[in-house]
Every structure is written in structure tokens, then in C-alpha cells.
User: Fold this.
Amino acid sequence: MRPSIARIALPVPLDRLFDYLIPEHCFPVIGGRVSVSFGRQTLIGIVIELATESELEKNKLKMLNEVIDVAPVWTDSLFSLLKWCSQYYHFPLGDTLSNAMPTALRKGKSADVRPQLFWSLSEQGRNKLMSGMGRAVKQAKVLTMLTSGALPHEAMTEAEISRNVLTTLEDKGWIFSENVVPEIKPWPDNIDNDSDKPRLNEEQAVAIASINSCGGFGCFLLDGVTGSGKTEVYLNAMQSVLQKKQQVLVLVPEIGLTPQTIERFRRRFNVPIEILHSGLNETERLNAWLSARDGHAGIIIGTRSALFTPFHQLGMIIVDEEHDASYKQQDNLRYHARDIAVMRANNEQIPIVLGSATPSFESIQNALSGKYFYLELTKRAGNAKPTKNHILDIKGLYLESGLSAPLIAKMREHLNAGNQVLLFLNRRGYSPALMCHECGWIAECKRCDAYYTFHQYTKELRCHHCGSQRPVIHQCQECGSTQMVTVGVGTEQLENQLTVLFPEYSTIRIDRDNTRKKGSLGSALDEIRQGKHQILIGTQMLAKGHHFPDVTLVAILDVDSALYSSDFRAAERLAQLYIQVSGRAGRASKSGEVILQTHHPEHELLSSLLKHDYRQFAMSALKERKLALLPPFSYLTLFKAESNQSDTAEMFLRQVRQTLEVNPLFDQQCSVMGPVPAPIAKKAGRFRWQLLLQVESRTAMQKLLMSSDYALTLLPLAKRVRWSIDVEPQELS
Ligand code: ADP
Ligand code: ZN
Ligand code: ZN
Assistant:
């Protein structure tokens, strides 16, 4: 019988499907988009099932409006993966699917390759160019560009040719435009473009051979310090995949920080490469997506969300800097892109490589237990020398905006030798608080349980939790004194102090505040490499994989805040930051130095980091996690609730706790902690509470969650609070 009902997942916060009647001449497909009326809106949804019966009476059902796709949006295996993600992370299917599509598709645009505008030279234009163009420089440039054939409009934009110039030329009849459906050209037979490759060392050769000999699924943890040649391993492993006409997905933490890596890919391979980054407009993003789906692109490089790109024939996944926290999405579908990438590789029976100089403890544990193959690169390629590392005890020392005198002296030494210095301070703004010198009153955000950060450049107080801002307060609101002083040091203040201490050198600050503008991060990084600045200040942002060959001194200014954090992952993160920044110092022929400023030089973590390498540190930290039954030796789920009334949020989580505890699947493997107020107990005017579930096995946790899911949505307060489930959270706040 012809199905008369379509069960549709819609982007609404209700975790259920909706039945619609199929009109006479319409043929929806499972996994394809349809548009429907929902209340007063028109929504785009995905068909999940086709049926002949509905639980609702047929005369209560609405007709769907329109069938948009004649083919499914995703491949079968990717579609299953998305459905699985929705269940695993307890996020509604309709929203999950909607978020996994490029915006253009979410809005209902066609999923066919769209014609592109091409410019060509006319006969007349060719003659004109021959006879000379006089002073019309831009016009001549366009004609010259087109002499060897038609070019897409983007090429003109890239060459900074304005629409005006093109229209003028078109009006004169010298050039003409056409809409052309981009042709999918087969890749050249020889996809390898680079004859000048380094000779692989033995460890690299072993790694590549292992990856390439893996028929089907295999997960490889590639553990190698910065500069040990991991990228070279990726390139070689990719080559054999591309040679088989299969595609490669490369995930990176942040595109802006990897321009040289991308450049290396382009130089090496003769296949189209698409970069999925936040600067793409809707059409560009859709085209990149289609290019992967239709098998045009050989390599897709992107951040977290690129994981859900469909491929014509995916042959390998690479996750660079696999330990990076940005792979975990912090809202909506709270997925971990690395974990789901492993899942995807398994489903599609292809190899996946996880690379890092500082692998996550989860991945190390998976390698130890034999789930992942462990590949190690121990030597820095080329002739880089190991760094000299020290702990600088700053107890009792006078600090100038966070800098101790011995550190300032060290900086002078390195700067005078013509090198660059990199300082890490993981705190934006001028100072993290503004205080009255007479009575101690501190300016506090009214909507949050947090102090305002003072930003000197914009002359305002900003709350880093809710984003609210206000003009600087010059007078105490408690006692009326005008003696307001700053407390603590942020990157802006450090920058100020450095220009006073080192007026002869140029200082540049790189944090989220001054790299918001598109392209500004890239140009800052370029300036650093060109040597325009000698002193670099950065937050965590600057620790990620990129190379400054002239930096010979790196200092981490505020080690103590990580040593005494309430988050059990803080030590792992500090160790990762430390190893990552050590890897930045003293590449090429210059030897480097790393300094850790601390009040606690005796702290075990610091001495073990200095004495041993990351792996030994990880092994001893893993032992501690095992004793404490913390991840990866148990699995966590964080329930969060917020409300205008503190009691309501707390009460709701009490009900959640009860629901879990009365579930027959809740056994001695499981424990719940809380509800407790969240670390920031009030944010943007709402009170926040949380509840932590800890279970010894992942399967047991999932079963418990699955079977409690429905009961949770029925809780009396579930509709009165804003709540979420974070499965395997990375941040406990
Ligand atoms: P990673 O990705 O681990 O930081 P890269 O692959 O970028 O390391 O290698 C660091 C530098 O060493 C690069 O300039 C690269 O071209 C070079 N390199 C890599 N492997 C070798 C090798 N076997 N011999 C010589 N140079 C190499
Ligand atoms: Zn006061
Ligand atoms: Zn606030």
C-alpha cells in the first residue's frame, strides 16, 4: 500500500516525531526534507518514517506542504549516526538533524549544486587588450586575468576587483558572464604534487605503515611532541587514501590557527580542498558541503561541526590536537567530536588517526586497554634542541603586573639577543575586579554571582559570564570614595606594563577581545612571524598548534590558579598547556627556555612535569583517577537546571535525583551527587543548580539514562525550569 503518513522530525524542543498526511502527487523520502505547517509557522523537517497508519485520527492530521528533496540529505550511515547521537546525548532528534545541516538547507534551499557565475573575455575585449588600455589599471588587470580562460566570480573578489569595474567592462562588451554548473572534474591520476618531501624517520615510517595496512576500521593514537613530524605522518597516510580516490576529513580545533598546515596540504596534493570555517557565508558553506557529498573535494578541513559533513566516499578521518577541549560542544547537542569521529570511522569501516603532543587521558587509557593502536614519535624532526625548563618561585617577590624581577631580567636577556618572548596569562581584560581602596567594596554584576572585569581599552566593566557591560565606576557605591583600584592582572594590564618596561620592543596581545574581527588573528600571527613584534602576550588561544621559530622564551605567569582548581581536569589542562608551549620554544636552531611562575614550587604536579615527560605524568595522574573512580574510569552525566527562583531549580533536580534512584537500573555502580549550586551560582539573573551522576560503565549509564528519559520530561517542574543533560561533560560548571 502506498504510505499515506510521513513521520517527521521537526526543529522544535520536543523529543518526538510528528505525523503528517502525504498529498496525492507527493513522494517524500526517508532522510529527505519536507516543509510543513506547525502552529502558525512553516518548518523544515526530516522524514524519519513512512507509514500507512497513525495513532491519531486521520482527520486530525494536517497535510505536509511540500517535498523538498527527492533523495536523502545524508548517507545511510551518517543518518544513523545522527540518530544515534540524538539518543546518546539526549537531545531532540529534530533539532539534532536541523543543526547538522548547513544553514541554507535548514532554510529549505535546494541541495543541488548551484550554478556559479563565470566571467570570460570577448573577442572585442581581447582586441582591446592588444591595442593597449591606457590608464585603466583595474580594467586591464581583469582583461589580463581572463586571457587564459573563464574565471569564477570569486576569483575576481579575491583579486579585489569591484562589481563596478566588471559592470563597466560588461557594458563595453569586452567581457561577458555566464551561469555555469561547476563541472566535477575527476582528480588527476597523480594526486601527489610535491617532489620535495623530507625523508621519513623510522618512527614515522612505522606509523604510516601501520595506518596504511589497516583494512577497515582502526583507531590510531599518534602521540608525538610538537615538531616531531605528526603532520608529515598525516600527509603520507592521506596520500594512499587519496590515491584510491577516497576522501579525507581533517578535524582541527581552530582554523585561524592552522594556516601553515592548510598551506602544506595544498602544496602537497593535487585535489580540491575545502575549508569549513566560520567566515564562510551561507552559499560558500553549502557549496563546500556539496563538494564533499558529491565527491568533488578530496580533503575537507574543518572544526567540530565538519564531522557531520556527508562524503561520497570517505576513506580516512584525522583529528588533530585530539585533546583539545573545543571538540566538545557546550550547548544544544553536547557531543564530543573526537568520540563521534571514532564512532563514524567504525560505522564506515575506515581508519582514524588521533594526533596530539598531549593526548587526553581518555585516549591514553584507550591505548593502554588496547582499544586504540598506539603510535609514538619521540624525536623532534630537524635539528631543534630540547628546551631548558624551570620553576620560578615568586613567594614574597614584588610583582609588576604579574611579572617578577627575575622573569623581567630573563626577558631582557632573550630580547637583547634578538629573539621573541611569549607570555601566557589566561585572563582577558585589564583586571578581574575593580575595588574601593577605602572600604573594600567590589563592583559586581547584578545579574550574576561574579565580579566585573575592568577593560581599559573600551573603558567599561564587563561581565565575562553574561556578557553585560557598563561604563567604568569612578566612585564607590558603598562609601562614595573615589579611590577605585584594580585587583589582579589581566592581559590588557600586562600589555600596558610591558610597553613601560620595554619601550624599545613592540608588544602584541592575542586574546578573544582583539581577534574578534575576521582575519585579525591571521594578520596578527603573520606579523609575529615577520618579526614585527618581539613580546607576545596570549591566553590559552595562543597555545594551539602553530609555529613561531624565533620565540626562545616562554613563561606561564599564573600557574597557581590551575594547581588549586576545583575541576579534576585542571591538572591535565595545565600539563597540556605546559607541553604545548614548551613545544613552541626554541624550534629550528635556537634553544629555548620555559619558565613557570608559582608560589608553590614544591607542588608535586610541577616537579613531576619538569622531571618527567607528559606520558609519565599522565600515567601517575591516571592512577589517581582510578583510585578516585574519576573518568576515564567512570562515566559522568551532568544535569543542569536554572530558574528565576533558586528553589525551583533545586527542587527540580531533587526530583531528577529521585527519578534516577528509583529506577531499577540504578545499582551499586551508580551514584548521584547534589543538587548543588553551580560554580557560578547566578548567571544573567537566573539561579543555577547541578546534579552529577557517576556510573562505572558507559553502557550502564546509557541504559539508566535511556530508561529515565521519558520520566524526566514528565516531572512536574520540567516545564518551569530551563534544564539540560550533559553526557560526559568536559567542564563541570
Ligand atoms: P608536528 O605536526 O608534529 O608539529 P611537522 O610534521 O609539522 O610536526 O614537522 C615539523 C617540521 O619538521 C616540519 O617543518 C616538517 O617539514 C619537518 N619534518 C617532518 N618530518 C621530517 C623528517 N622525517 N625529516 C626532516 N624534516 C621533517
Ligand atoms: Zn568604598
Ligand atoms: Zn553577569
